[in-house]
Amino acid sequence: MKTSSKIAVFWFRRDLRLEDNAGFSAALRSGYPVLPLFIFDRDILDRLEDRDDARVTFLRKVVAEMRDELEKAGGTLLAPYGKPVEVLERIVRDYPVAAVYTNHDYEVYAKDRDASIRQRLANHDIPFHTTKDQVIFERKEVLTGAGTVYTVFTPYAKKWKSQLDDAALVPFPCPLGPDKLYPASVPPVPSLEAMGFVPSAVPLPGKDVSDDTLRQYAARRDYPAIEGTTRLGLHLRFGTVSVRRVVAKARELSDTWLTELIWREFYMQILDNFPRVEKCACKPAYDNIPFRHDEEAFRRWCEGTTGYPIVDAGMRQLNATGFMHNRVRMIAASFLVKHLLIDWRWGEAYFGRKLLDYDLASNNGSWQWVAGTGCDAAPYFRVFSPAAQAQKFDRRTEYIRRWVPELGTPAYPPPMIEHEFARDRVIRTYKEALNRGRLVIGQ
């Protein structure tokens, strides 16, 4: 039943926290009591292949914790499982909604979804307010001197840093209390089983990163046997940490880590401004490359049985934990594309299935960087030697032996392809393909 007083709805998405949340702060300042909302999106969840997907376990846990905290403050959290357009239509029917607030999202699916919802709400004379929250700079806020979008990282990063000031890092106030929240009686958070999932046993990384980790980040981040990275990717992906607080910490303690955070925003603005990169090569000429559709070779890569120990270690780590060290991600990705000559989109999709911290913009950008197909990418003739990479970054094979214990025994397979042969083949294949196309971004 509708109640008489108007309310605002705040829709949580990639911003699962109750503090320093730009859109939530705007809703709390609206003058209306706020009904927080999270939608377990069937358009996304029903496409997942693994019913024990750890990200769904994580989402359900975080949403339940947020609801508990909101109830202590005098409100609640509505968290249905359904299609967003249908859920918002029901909410408008059941509650006296004055406005809906949320934060920006930059993926093609999200922008199409939001456009549809904006129109549906407009039919009810309900405004749909969206706010920048998951990045410091978005869309066309960091531009070249000619007013165009950067497609090369180094000048983008320089301009990004020049524009950063203290004001950009000020947290948004999100005061909770019965005077700010709508005390609705709503159904419980749906169980994993009700949504067709089962709990995952994959351990989830925490949000706390020590100052020592950040101070040593530059020196330790490339060595997979060392716990030298922050493991904050999952939390940045779902917004359980504030990017403003993360950037403030990076600016204080680690310029190298700050650069990694800028890469995240670089790829996000590439996806936002050039949405074709989700499915196509950023440089259209690279769509001419005749990749091999070798499902057996792809299976061996996925399983970690290529006969290249550092590649196999990385893939096994990914399959077991939902995480792969960033240096090893580059090696494993390069092996799939450059050694096996398999389409980067196959690998990007597999990472999308397995990575806890999977983010479309960053992973698409990183895969295209490795494949040579992206903006500001590694040149196509740069082909990682897995053996040389292992010697440089895992000299004592500590990381490799952790994940490939049968190394050196008859149980471990020989290399499925010879490095020099693979290198010569991919360079020749790319060169011939590129002679048939032009390297132009955004077409």
Describe this structure in words.
This protein has helices at residues 22-28, 42-45, 54-72, 84-94, 108-122, 153-163, 211-215, 217-220, 233-238, 243-253, 255-273, 295-303, 309-321, 326-339, 344-354, 360-371, 386-393, 398-403, 419-434; strands at residues 7-12, 34-38, 40-41, 81-82, 97-103, 128-131. The protein is mainly alpha-helical. It has 3 domains: 1-133, Rossmann fold (3-Layer(aba) Sandwich); 135-171 and 208-272, Serine Threonine Protein Phosphatase 5, Tetratricopeptide repeat (Alpha Horseshoe); 278-434, DNA Cyclobutane Dipyrimidine Photolyase, subunit A, domain 3. Strands 2-1-5-6 form a 4-stranded parallel β-sheet. Strands 3-4 form a two-stranded parallel sheet. Strand 5 (97-103), helix 5 and strand 6 form a beta-alpha-beta unit. Helix 6 crosses helix 11 (255-273), helix 14 (326-339) crosses helix 16 and helix 15 (344-354) runs antiparallel to helix 16 (360-371). The longest helix has 19 residues, at 54-72. Mean pLDDT is 95; it is low at 439-443.
